[in-house]
């Protein structure tokens, strides 16, 4: 199956700082999604981005499908950005739906 | 439009018992997938249902089963519970069953097996 690696595993920032989270995957994919898991466990959709670049407020993401990686940018971080960020990928006809990375634990201090 | 809903939100069961979890997808979505999240194994795909048929299945024992009803609602059943089944069970829905449709997750059911 597809392997998904996220880095860094842990990230501690001061409020207002910028950060970049990386997701590498081992095979071509049809779907790539970024999620933020809130303290109660729910996965919040951030981006559906199998290729290209998208922006949503202070967050943006870029996927370079040919090089098998995706980046999530968080600018001017806020304490409410704290939590775990997951990258998940999917390949059609693989026998599975989303394969998740292990996540990046982000802590934003005031 | 209402999001994905899951019931119950919390469950405590004893080893050997069985449990049924329920998931209602976003209106119009026909695919429902189930995932298990544990501290040791992370988030893992259990199975997917589309049009009342299981389309894909992850690497889990036969104690884990599911079904989907004609209104796309899905249930997941775990029989003969083990301590290791303690986990957050997440349900996701998407419009289609192939790898190009965005998935949306419910709030999860937190199962504790004692």
Instruction: Name the beta content range of chain A.
Output: over 45%
Overall number of strands of chain B: 11
Structural class category of chain B: mainly beta
Tell me the distance between the termini of chain B. Answer: 37 Å
Estimate what percentage of residues of chain B fall within beta strands: over 45%
* Outline of chain A: globular
Oligomer: heterodimer
Q: Judging from the principal axes of the Cα atoms, what is the shape of chain B?
A: globular
Order of helices and strands of chain B: EEEEEEEEEEE
Let me know the largest β-sheet of chain B.
7 strands, mixed
Instruction: Give the terminus-to-terminus CA distance of chain A.
Output: 40 Å
Number of strands of chain A: 11
Average pLDDT level of chain B:
95
Most residues in contact: chain pair: A-B, 27 and 26 residues
Low-confidence stretches of chain B: none
Q: What's the rounded overall pLDDT mean of chain A?
A: 95
Q: Which consecutive residue ranges of chain A, at least 5 long each, have pLDDT under 50?
A: none
* Secondary structure: helix percent of chain B: under 10%
Number of helices of chain B: 0
Structural class of chain A: mainly beta
């Amino acid at each position: 199956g597809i392997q998904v690696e996220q880095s860094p595993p842990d990230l501690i920032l001061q409020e207002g700082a910028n950060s970049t989270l990386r997701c590498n995957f081992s095979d071509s994919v049809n779907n790539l999604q970024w999620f933020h898991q809130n303290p109660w466990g729910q996965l919040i959709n951030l981006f559906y981005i199998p290729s290209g670049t998208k922006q949503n407020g202070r967050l943006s993401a870029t996927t370079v499908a040919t090089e098998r990686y995706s980046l999530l940018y968080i600018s001017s971080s806020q304490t409410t950005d704290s939590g775990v960020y997951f990258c998940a990928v999917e390949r059609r006809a693989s026998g599975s739906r989303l394969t998740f990375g292990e996540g990046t634990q982000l802590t934003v201090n005031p | 439009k209402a999001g994905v809903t899951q019931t119950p939100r919390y469950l405590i069961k004893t080893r050997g018992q069985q449990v049924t979890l329920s998931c209602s997808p976003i209106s119009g979505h026909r695919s429902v997938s189930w995932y298990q999240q544990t501290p040791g194994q992370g988030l893992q795909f259990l199975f997917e249902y589309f049009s009342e048929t299981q389309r894909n299945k992850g690497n889990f024992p036969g104690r884990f089963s599911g079904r989907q009803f004609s209104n796309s609602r899905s249930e997941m059943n775990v029989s003969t519970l083990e301590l290791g089944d303690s986990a957050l069970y997440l349900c996701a829905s998407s419009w289609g069953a192939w790898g190009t449709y965005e998935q949306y997750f419910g709030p999860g059911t937190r199962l504790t097996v004692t």
